[in-house]
Amino acid sequence: MFNFLTLSITIFANTHLSIVIGEWPPFNYTNENNQIVGSTTDLVKKVLKQVNISYSIRSYPWARSMLIAQGSGNVMIYSIYQTPERFNKFQWICPLSPPVKTFLYRLESRKDLDISSLSQAKNYRIGVHRNSSTHEFLVKKGFAAGDNLDLIADGKINTRKFLAKRLDFIVETEFSVKQRLKNLNMSTDIVVKALELKGFSGNSVCMAFSLATDKNLIEKIEIALRKIQSKS
Question: Which of 66, 132, 180, 202 has the greatest CB tally within 10 Å of its CB?
C-alpha cells in the first residue's frame, strides 16, 4: 500500500496540467502585473498544491479557451458553467464555487430601457461573450447575433462599448460588473440591474477537463477540492 501511494504521488508530481481561462473578474482575470488572479484562481491554486502537480495557467478569449480545453492531453478550464451543450465535451467537477446570479445591466442614465421581461430585451442590443453559456442561453430564447446580440471576445471592449452607449445592455454577475467598472475607475452607481436571467441565473461554476485528461488525476483534484471546501 505504501509503495502504491508513493508511486501515485510521484506520477502526479511529474504530470503537467495545462489550464486555460477566459477573463471573468473577480473570479479569474489578469491583473495589472500580468498575473492571473481572482477568487476562483486562488481556490484552484490551493487545490493543485494539495495534489502536488505542476501546472500552467493561460488566459485567452473565451471561445479559444473552450477549443483548447477540448484538445488532447491533460487540460483544464475554469470557471465554466455546465450546460447540456457542453456536458459530453468534458469531464466535470461541480460545483467549484457557490451559485452566482446573472443580470442584464443598463446604465442608470438610460431610464428609457425599462423592461420587465426577456422578450422585451429583444428590441435592444445586448453585449455578450461569444460562445459563453449566456450566449447559448440567449440564443435558445430566440436572440441572434447581428440582430440583438453583439458578440465580443474581450470583456474590456464589451464594457467600454456599453459605457459609450453603443450597447443597451450587458450580461454580467453582480461581482463581475463591479470589478470591471473598478478596473476602469468608474463608480458602480452608474449601472443598475435591468433584469435577472431567470432560468440561467443561480448556476454554479465548475472545473472542466478534456476527455483525454487522466481520470485518476481528476479524481485526486476533486478529493482535494472537497476537502478544502468542507473546511471553509
Answer: 180
